[in-house]
Amino acid sequence: PLMAKDAGSPLLTAHLWTLVGLSIVPGCFGWLWAAKRWGALPCLTANLLVQAISVLLTLASDSPLLLIISSIGFGGTFMGTTSLVMTIARQLSVPGNLNLLGFVTLIYGIGQILGPALT
C-alpha cells in the first residue's frame, strides 16, 4: 500500500490488501490440489519462487499493474506456503515424542517476529 501511494492511485492504495486477502483462499486450495498431483516439495519450491517474484515485482516499478500482479501473487502463495510446509511436516518421521507440527508453528512464529525486526 505504501508503494501504491507513490503510484498516485488512491483506489488502488485502499484495495491492495483486499486483493491479497481475496487471493489467499483460492491459493490455499490450489497449492494443496497441486501438491496432491505433483508432490508437496516441488509445489513448495514453485510456491516460494512465485512468492519471491511477486515481492521483487514491487522493486521493478511502481506501476499499478505490477502492484496488482504482485498483490495477487503474494496472496496466492502466502498461506499456501504454510499449508505445504505443514503437509511436508506431517510426512516426516520424527524421533521420540517431538510434535513436529507444533515445532514448525513455533519456528514460523519466531520468523514472523524476527523477519521484520531484522530488515
TrEMBL record:
Q: Which SUPFAM superfamilies match?
A: MFS general substrate transporter (SSF103473)
> What residue ranges are annotated as transmembrane?
12-33, 40-59, 65-86, 98-118
Keywords for the protein's UniProt record, in alphabetical order: Membrane, Transmembrane, Transmembrane helix
Kindly indicate whether the keyword Iron-sulfur belongs to this entry: no
* GO CC field: plasma membrane
Q: Which InterPro entries match?
A: MFS_4, MFS_trans_sf
A Pfam family hit: MFS_4
Protein name as it appears in the record: YbfB/YjiJ family MFS transporter
Species of the source: Escherichia coli
